[in-house]
Please model this.
Amino acid sequence: MDLYIVANKEEISRLAYQVMLSKINESDNVTLGLATGSSPEGIYELFRANQPDVSHVTTVNLDEYIGIDESNDQSYAYFMNEHLFKHLDFKKNYLPNGMNSDPDAACREFEDIIAKNPIDLQLLGIGTNGHIAFNEPGSSFDSTTRVVELAKDTIVANSRFFDKMEDVPKTAITMGIKTIMSAGEILLIASGENKADAIKTMLEQDMNEQMPASVLQSHPNVIIIIDEAAASKIDPALLTQGGGCCDGGCCGGGGHHHDTEGCCGGGGHHHHDNEGCCGGH
Ligand code: F6R
Model:
């Protein structure tokens, strides 16, 4: 596990974009796993601004609500179209089909899509409770793509975007934890103090299903990029343990640092000042 602590959300986006761009440029047939939410917005903005060639890139998204289509601005398909898909020419973009009248069939279809397009790099955000995709605490580490009930507070929080309570989605399709873990590489990003507890627990607790993101401890190829606020509760001993991020900087967790490509790629130079990989530690 490679942990990079940077100054702020903008730096997270810059570094994460470079990691994704390196992966895109690694081969002529790439599958990226993508996420919605506020965390990746800055990364997608960089895709829009830089217009990299993605004609060989297939994308698969983590999750989608059941029962609202891509014209509804609350759907994840709408979010992805607005932020990314309508601005760049990808080979193919897949999301779970929340409009299939048989949602279980939609889940099987999505697993098939991923089996045919193994994920090279999966981008993840993390919930304040440690969820990844819609895999809430208690989700099995063996889970695959499936229908999940949304938590009551999620439904209530979402209700402000809908005219009637009946219209608020109560279920979603999510990639399972096992599906996510099948990715060749995983890139998790988080910013802000409200993520600090989840980040600490994910890194410091033994793996357990009450903290879904802790499963990443057993993945051989994980990059975590967070800002100082999200890192603020990590045990300092963990941060100095391994010695090196980016030429002797500060990343903890797994002890070894990523190479030029993964770390601050593109430009080929390492950031290890206060603005870069290892800000402040
Ligand atoms: C999004 C997703 C969620 C978010 C998580 C963090 O597709 O699956 O798990 O990654 O809820 O959300 P933000 O980034 O809005 O804090």
Notes: Confidence is low (pLDDT under 50) at residues 243-281. Residues 208 and 214 are 6 Å apart (CA to CA). The chain has two domains: 8-232, 235-281. The chain is about 30% helix and 15% strand.
